[in-house]
Design goal:
Elements: H1 2-19, E1 21-30, E2 41-49, E3 53-56, E4 60-61, E5 67-74, E6 85-92, E7 95-102, E8 107-113, E9 117-124, E10 134-137, E11 140-143, E12 149-154, E13 157-165, E14 168-176, E15 180-185, E16 187-197, E17 205-209, E18 212-216, E19 220-227, E20 231-237, E21 240-246, E22 253-258, E23 264-272, E24 276-284, E25 301-308, E26 311-312, E27 316-319, E28 321-322, E29 327-333, E30 340-348, E31 354-362, H2 383-421
Parallel strand pairs: 1-8, 9-15, 16-22
Antiparallel strand pairs: 1-5, 2-3, 2-4, 2-6, 6-7, 9-12, 10-11, 10-13, 13-14, 16-19, 17-18, 17-20, 20-21, 23-24, 24-29, 25-26, 25-27, 25-30, 28-29, 30-31
Length: 422
């Protein structure tokens, strides 16, 4: 009985080995000039067995020699159900091929070709020395060699090369017509970087460009760079940062202003009107590089409460309304006489710098400014008193003129009488 089982197992294994196949295929892909092609996608559709049927394999890519190795295993144990035909797919730069093949025992090689040519890209500096960088055409990216070369296989047509040198990118168009050499020069520049605050004062911090970070002391840094304009540069000071693009072919000085100063809140005034107390304030974001006052997302606002006879009301928050030039105004309503009003004014600029101003005033009083209070007098001088003083002055002047005329007249008359007596 034992011998029967062993013989049966041998027959079973023999049936499997004779019916199933293992396909080991070396695929070589070449261009129209019989040169190997790198990064060609290769995959297959073949039968695993009669139950699972046909499956599609994952894509593999040819190496720098244009080669990829495939291994297909069919584990069907019934020879009559085994399908040895399979489909081989090739894809490169939008071009696709499919080939019907038949599984053969043992290892073998097949060569396939695309009707395309070779584009040789060379990136170099002003001294004609090669520069390592990443070069992209369509969806394929390659790093240039130490001598600056990268190779692509392309069909004829118009293309764009994206050259990325340490994070600095530029696009170069070119026409592919047969084998094509594309030379891309990168230029060396001397640049001066100024890191300043919004008022033009120098800052300490760092700057980052073309993948490297440099410290900045006293607001200035001088560098020699090799890059492709335009160049993205970033500046950092504390928690603040700024970025901009510049072209060193146009200017070799880059100003990086960082707004670190909050707006200025001054000139608070308040006066009574029919609705309550009108409070007005000047809010300015000053500085030659100031980003400006934020009036949309975080507009200026006032938080206030009122204390009457020792009882304090809950705080209220109101947005201040622009009232011309740099002034903002709001009317505080439901203010009881002889109450104390505590308030805070808040304002932010577009760089998220925030300023506040806190003060108190007594209902029934009025103020022209926070630094030098200028209360408006409760009473003005009587207009009648002013007018009487002016009248009295002119009466005295008139009387003096009359007296003078009478004196002159009396003197003349006296002299005349004296002459007649003689």
């Amino acid at each position: 009985m034992k011998n029967v089982l062993i013989i049966g197992l041998i027959i079973f294994l023999f049936s499997i080995s004779s019916a199933a196949f293992i396909e080991e295929l070396e695929v070589l892909v070449i261009d129209s000039n019989d040169r190997s092609m790198e990064e060609v996608a290769v995959w297959t559709n073949y039968q695993i067995n009669s139950i699972k049927g046909y499956v599609t394999t994952n894509k593999q890519y040819t190496n720098q020699y244009g080669i990829v190795n495939l291994k297909l295993i069919n584990n069907e144990f019934q020879e009559k159900l085994t399908k040895t035909e399979y489909t081989l797919f090739l894809e490169y730069m939008g071009q696709q091929q499919s080939h019907i093949l038949d599984a053969k025992s043992g290892r073998r090689s097949r060569t396939f070709s695309f009707d395309i040519n070779r584009a040789t890209i060379r990136v170099y500096d002003i001294y004609k020395g090669g520069i390592k960088s990443n070069v992209t055409i369509l969806d394929q990216t390659r790093e240039t060699s130490n001598t600056g070369y990268a190779v692509f296989n392309l069909p004829d047509g118009d293309y764009q090369i994206v050259v990325d040198h340490s994070g600095s990118k530029q696009v170069f168009p070119f026409e592919m017509k047969g084998d094509t050499l594309v030379e891309i020069p990168l230029t060396e520049f001397d640049i001066s970087i100024l890191l300043l605050d919004d008022k033009g004062n120098p800052l300490n911090g760092t700057v980052k460009l073309i993948g490297e970070t440099h410290s900045v002391l006293n607001g200035k840094k001088t560098l020699k760079i090799t890059a492709i304009p335009p160049i993205l540069i970033e500046g950092f000071s504390g928690s603040k940062e700024v970025s901009k693009e510049f072209d060193p072919k146009i200017t070799n000085e880059v100003v990086l202003p960082i707004d670190i100063n909050p707006p200025e809140i001054t000139g608070v005034t308040y006066k009574k009107n029919i609705r309550g107390y009108e409070l007005s304030v000047s809010i300015l974001d000053t500085g030659i590089y100031a980003t400006g006052l934020d009036t949309q997302i975080n507009p200026p606002l006032i938080i206030y409460s009122m204390t009457t006879a020792g009882e304090k009301t809950p705080e209220r928050t109101l947005n201040l309304l622009p009232s011309g030039s740099d002034r903002f105004t709001i009317t505080l309503t439901d203010i009881s006489e002889d109450s104390v009003i505590d308030y805070e004014i808040w304002a932010s600029d577009l760089s998220s710098n925030t300023a506040s101003y806190t003060d108190t005033f007594l209902a029934g009083s009025e103020q022209q400014g926070p630094t030098i209070p200028m209360p408006i007098p409760d009473t003005k001088p009587e207009q009648s008193e002013l007018e009487l003083g002016e009248v009295f002055k002119w009466i005295l002047i008139g009387l003096g003129v009359v007296v003078l005329i009478l004196i002159v007249y009396a003197v003349i008359k006296l002299k005349s009488e004296m002459k007649e007596e003689k």
